[in-house]
Specification:
By secondary structure, this protein is mainly α. It contains 26 helices and six strands.
Length: 718
């Protein structure tokens, strides 16, 4: 059969690879800066754009969607063409995808530090950007499936299965979690509230890890490890089990982020069971990757690409063992809200995603530019300093997590908390945070060395934009055909849209089983009669709280443990959150839980604490928020916000949006009078007044301290 000649597109994967490097550098620099802010709080600078709460979402989004995201697309665009023996379906779609994704990243980099955020972890981007993500993702899907359709091979290799599952699942996750009601161009409220919002968010949050940080990278592993090793993948059958078991089980695991919370027990239990079962397919994939190197260990010692990939696969195995362990309730009780989780996440991010990306880049650039890597010694230096950096990063945080739990939960012989002041825990951790920063610095140094090495490689070579290739055409009728000797999976592999449909069914089963009862069975989320909607001023204060990223350091979820109820008060109930769009349960306690903050301190304490936390809590590492004392509250947004909440089912009186600011002014004046009695002269129209109103509201509903009559606020709150 005569071979057809064609060309592979190297420009698109090269562009994504360069973007991954650029944004990876930015994301890691921001990550190191915020890590140092926990050691040297003055680095927050008392300036809005540089606070931990504003920069932390920028860091996570830059690393996940910019560094890793561009790395995924670089690897997919390179490997897909070669696995299918076909050029990408459309150069135009490739360009739209590349530039569209970079514009999305730029929009995130501009909006997040400015405080435009939905307040949902890993999904902070506001609604116009969410729409853009969905559109660009569709462009990617059309380009991928168009290439698959015009392929010159019959069967789809295992890497492509993972690419297909990634495409369909990320689309579902993003659309469902991004259901929000716009209030203005860059402000929206989640369509879900409280417990329902928490379930949807962590169904998304956990599976963003599963289907953005894991499944596409497994596809890249299945392509680049055999290529670099010069050996076929260890087991085709294990690949099948790994793929289908992983995508089916992963989607159920989200509730393990919400153990001992107000989420119904049955949902928590489902999350535990399926999370624990994930060990099997996850380790099946790790074993398949490592055993692909059987007989090639001498090559591993010499080939720096394989060194990076071995560490990456090992980190994947460690993370996917630790994750199911952390989903067990007795382990989760220790680790949740602590720095243990930060260590766990970064073993995956720095080890699995980072090291595999580095190995892939070291493989790609010599082939893009037609020459050997500039320096293998520098690449080996990068490998060792990067590996050392991961260890210096993770180990101190594991120690910090155990320290936090022990100090939070320890009682004296007389039955009192040994460390009642939360700040005692924080100051104990600062040396561990310093070591974590050292680890991040080492990892960043390795990254900079890689940039230099790849730049010198590119500079010495000549870019091959269109790489010549040839392959036999696919015989007519071969794709839909079936031979009696073929197994059932061989048939599915020939049909990409069937693979897409089966993948969609697999991931929908778990999501629907968890969500339908939570949304449709009212008794699953019991209501509390005394819980009232937020007043207009409290709603404005809550939005400021979200804007400043307070949820990144504080939780609003008291678990039913004695040491938590002794420290914070009554444990949290599902019915307390029915008007919370979005929920604010948090995932990390750098500071204390705030669910029962209302009435604990006078208004003057909050005023001074937000201005400079160290005046009220010596040794605090919390940022200062002096601009809240100076900036005027935008009351023109009150009416649209009230109308949006009413649309979402919050029971404000009909027409209340027209008079809401009258109640807002009355409550402002009350707080200003309280401050005046404490010797503080404050203007009622400042943002700090709204923030105080929100903090003083937290947790007071179940105490029966609120008596709100909308249109005339009466309250017995302190």
């Amino acid at each position: 059969m005569e071979l057809e000649r064609f060309e592979y597109d190297n420009r698109t994967p090269r562009n994504f690879a360069v973007a991954s490097i650029i944004f990876g550098l930015i994301g890691m620099l921001v990550g190191l800066y915020i890590a140092l802010e926990l050691v040297f709080p003055n680095l927050n600078l008392g300036f809005p754009l540089t606070t931990f709460g504003r920069l932390r979402p920028l860091h996570t989004n830059a690393v996940i969607f910019a560094f890793v995201g561009n790395g995924i697309f670089a690897g997919v665009y390179y490997s897909l063409q070669r696995l299918l023996k076909a050029r990408m379906f459309s150069n135009a779609l490739s360009n739209i995808h590349f530039w569209g994704w970079q514009l999305i990243i730029l929009a995130a980099a501009l909006t997040l530090p400015l405080g435009y955020t939905t307040g949902k972890e890993y999904a902070e981007l506001e609604w116009p950007i969410d729409i853009a993500i969905a559109l660009i993702w569709v462009v990617f899907g059309i380009n991928m499936f168009g290439t698959i359709v015009k392929r010159r091979v019959q069967h789809l290799y295992v890497a492509i299965w993972f690419y297909i599952a990634t495409f369909v699942t990320v689309a579902v996750l993003h659309i469902v979690n991004s259901m929000e009601l716009p209030v203005s161009f860059l402000k929206s409220y989640s369509a879900y509230a409280g417990v329902q919002d928490a379930l949807v968010q962590w169904w998304y949050g956990h599976n963003a890890v599963a289907f953005f940080l894991t499944t596409p990278y497994l596809g890249l592993m299945y392509y680049f490890v055999p290529k670099a090793a010069g050996r076929p993948v260890y087991s085709y059958r294990l690949s099948i089990i790994h793929f289908w078991a992983l995508i089916f089980l992963y989607i159920w695991a989200g509730p393990h982020h919400l153990l001992y919370t107000a989420l119904p027990d049955w949902a928590q239990s489902l999350g535990v069971v399926f999370s624990f079962m994930l060990i099997a397919p996850s380790w099946g994939g790790m074993i398949n990757g490592l055993l692909t190197l059987r007989g090639a260990w001498d090559k591993v010692r010499e080939d720096v690409v394989l060194k990076f990939m071995v560490v990456a696969i090992t980190a994947y195995g460690m993370s996917t063992f630790e994750g199911p362990m952390l989903s067990l309730k007795n382990v989760n009780a220790i680790a949740h809200f602590t720095d243990w989780i930060i260590a766990h996440v970064h073993v995956g991010a720095l080890g699995w995603n980072g090291m595999l990306t580095f190995g892939m880049l070291y493989w790609l650039f010599p082939r893009f530019y037609g020459r050997e890597l500039f320096s293998k010694k520098l690449a080996n230096f990068h490998f060792w300093i990067g590996t050392l950096g991961i260890m210096f990063y993770a180990i101190p945080l594991y120690w910090a997590g155990l320290t936090q739990f022990e100090m939070w939960s320890e009682f004296t012989a007389d039955g009192f908390l040994r460390y009642p002041n939360f700040l005692e825990t924080v100051t104990q951790l600062i040396p561990m945070y310093a070591l974590r920063s050292l680890g991040g610095t080492l990892y960043l140094v390795g990254f900079l060395v890689m940039i230099y090495n790849l730049w010198k490689t590119a500079f010495a070579g000549k870019f091959i934009a269109n790489e010549a290739a040839e392959a036999a055409p696919l015989p007519k009728g071969a794709t839909p055909g079936h031979q009696a000797s073929e197994g059932w999976h061989r048939v599915i592999e020939r049909k990409p849209f069937q693979m897409l449909l089966f993948s969609l069914i697999m991931i929908l089963i778990g999501g629907l089983v968890e969500m339908i009862p939570t949304f449709l069975i009212k008794s699953n989320i019991p209501t509390i009669a005394s819980v009232q909607p937020y007043t207009p001023l409290e709603l404005q204060g809550r939005d400021i709280y979200i804007r400043e990223g307070c949820y990144t350091c504080h939780s609003q979820m008291i678990r039913p443990f004695r040491f938590e109820t002794e420290r914070y008060g009554e444990y949290s109930k599902a019915g307390e959150y029915v008007y919370d769009h979005p929920f604010q349960w948090g995932s990390k306690r750098t500071g204390p839980d705030l669910q029962r903050e209302g009435g604990k301190y006078p208004d003057s304490w909050h005023y001074n604490h937000m201005d400079d936390p160290r005046t009220m809590s010596p040794g605090s590492i919390m940022p200062m928020y002096p601009w809240l004392l100076d900036d005027d509250l935008d009351t023109t947004s009150t009416a649209p916000k009230i109308r949006a909440m009413m649309t979402l089912g919050v029971p404000y009186p009909e027409g209340y949006d027209k008079i809401a600011n009258q109640d807002l002014v009355r409550q402002q004046n009350k707080i200003v009078n309280n401050l005046k009695e404490s010797g503080i002269e404050a203007l009622p129209n400042k943002e700090i007044i709204a923030m105080i109103s929100y903090l003083q509201r937290l947790g007071t509903d179940i105490k029966g301290e609120n008596k709100i009559v909308f249109g005339q606020i009466a309250t017995t709150k302190p």
